């Protein structure tokens, strides 16, 4: 059974979804690969919020406040075996660092998988917590991000990858 809740963040409202197995989604408004149609499952709030969703919300608030760099909430993303491999690899990218799609493909054992890594990265259902925003082009360019390049830049500045533009205002 899927449950979900919403939280406010500096990058806009986030929909946090979970199953009994763990966190299954963190989606931004206008996210490129948002589940189609109205959310499935049951919206929860307050005392009825499952522990996994409450924990994810707490950890995301700490992340945006700059006091958390690693997430501990249990994850249960739904995807193909290859996508799961890529998403697991994304979690090994240290906060404050980036990797290119080609580097990830090489780590998976085949440098020709660059496009497939990019596609799996773009289909990551647990934004921020599975840090797909830390993947950049081989030339250092800020290539696509399901939440939009402005959000990617915000997250990378928050993590210290890019120089801060003074005080980062909320984007949305």
What features would you describe in this structure?
- This protein has five helices and six strands, in the order E-E-E-E-H-H-E-H-H-E-H.
- With 172 residues, it is of the alpha/beta class.
- It has a four-stranded mixed beta sheet with strand order 3-2-1-4, covered by helices on one side. Strands 5-6 form a two-stranded parallel ribbon.
- Helix 3 (101-107) packs across helix 4 (114-122).
- The two termini are 30 Å apart.
- The mean pLDDT is 88.
Q: Which structural category do the helix and sheet elements fall into?
A: alpha/beta
The CATH superfamily of the largest domain is known as Winged helix-like DNA-binding domain superfamily/Winged helix DNA-binding domain
| Annotation field: number of helices | 5
Helix content: 25-40%
Q: Please state how the strands of the largest beta sheet are arranged side by side.
A: 3-2-1-4
Radius of gyration, CA atoms, in whole angstroms: 16 Å
Q: What is the averaged pLDDT score?
A: 88
The low-pLDDT segments are: none
Number of strands: 6
Beta fraction: 5-15%
- The second-level CATH architecture of the largest domain is Orthogonal Bundle
């Amino acid at each position: 059974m899927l449950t979900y809740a919403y939280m406010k963040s500096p990058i806009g409202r986030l929909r946090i979804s979970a199953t009994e197995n763990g966190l299954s989604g963190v989606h931004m408004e206008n996210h490129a690969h948002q589940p189609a149609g109205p959310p499935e499952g049951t919206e929860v709030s307050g005392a009825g919020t499952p522990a996994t969703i409450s924990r994810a919300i707490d950890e995301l608030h700490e992340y945006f406040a700059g006091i958390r760099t690693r997430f501990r909430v249990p994850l249960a993303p739904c995807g193909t075996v290859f996508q799961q491999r890529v998403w697991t690899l994304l979690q090994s990218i240290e906060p404050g660092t980036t990797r290119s799609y080609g580097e990830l493909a090489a780590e998976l054992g085949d440098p020709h998988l660059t496009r497939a890594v990019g596609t799996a990265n773009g289909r990551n259902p647990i934004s921020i917590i599975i840090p797909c925003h830390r993947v950049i082009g081989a030339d250092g360019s800020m290539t696509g991000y399901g939440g939009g390049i402005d959000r990617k830049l915000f997250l990378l500045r928050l993590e210290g990858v890019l120089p801060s533009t003074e005080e980062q205002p909320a984007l949305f």
